[in-house]
Amino acid sequence: MAAVTQDPEKTLLWEKQNRTRAAIAAIIGAAGLLVYYIAFERLRGDYPTISGLDSLERVGEGRVADLPSLRIEEFQYLQDHQVTILAIGIGAFIGFCGMAWAAGFLSVATRARAPEFRRFLIYLPIIGGVSLAIGSLVYRTSIVVLTNDFMDGPRTVAEATQLQTGTQQFAQILSGLGGVVLAIGLIFVSLNAMRVGLLTKLFGYIGIVAGAMLVIFPLPVVQVFWLAGVGVMLLGKFPGGDPPAWRTGKAEPWPGAVATAQARAERGGRTPATQPAAPEASSKTPTAGRSKRKKRH
């Protein structure tokens, strides 16, 4: 990322040089997240479950650690779906890296139009997105490795409970922290980009929801929709053209509800009434009436 400048001409020049790459990253990222979502749902669909009653029945069978693990069916399922597991990891890696790139570009463009947007906020979606991408890929890869190790071993309860390694734990922590940082960054970027007019209100609010959903309830469909929309906008293919802020290099806040209503009324040939119109003067005034009565006398 280049240094942020408040000069509109330099801002527009920098954006022209980097906008297309950010758009491609956003679209590829959306495709990656879509692969991640589809592969994850496919893997989860037929995932075997283990009954807790079966575990309780084995307590009296002697040393449980040496018994065959009840998770053999689960590990067999994972071994049979290694390609799907890797697709989840690769899709997440591509998707969140694309999101980091697009959101980082949007952050720089926002700060160029809003000096109050702190510099450190630029790096939140970048650091968070890359961390989540790496953590997701490493975690899924470790599942494949550990599954093969278990299936090639004695397949006992002891082996099943000792599978998690330091690498897998590190990947889980990295993914968790990365997700939180990315969520915070995405919320701040979407909110401020909407305020300066770089994002429409629709995509500004969707970006805020997409960030919150990363922590509250992971649902990649929301991120896919937002990322694809941002990519289309950065390519200049957005319906209605670019928001004005992309053309001027300055903040162009969206009008409020009152201003919008007035603009719609003016386009319809109507001017919103601010006060009741004064009644038209009657052609027959009291003075005229008195004059007529005087003439009759």
TrEMBL record:
**Transmembrane regions:** 21-39, 85-108, 120-139, 170-191, 203-228
Ranges for region Disordered: 246-297
Q: Which UniProt keywords apply?
A: Membrane, Transmembrane, Transmembrane helix
Q: What is this protein called?
A: DUF4386 family protein
Q: What is the organism field in this record?
A: Solirubrobacter phytolaccae
Which classification does the entry list for the species? Bacteria, Bacillati, Actinomycetota, Thermoleophilia, Solirubrobacterales
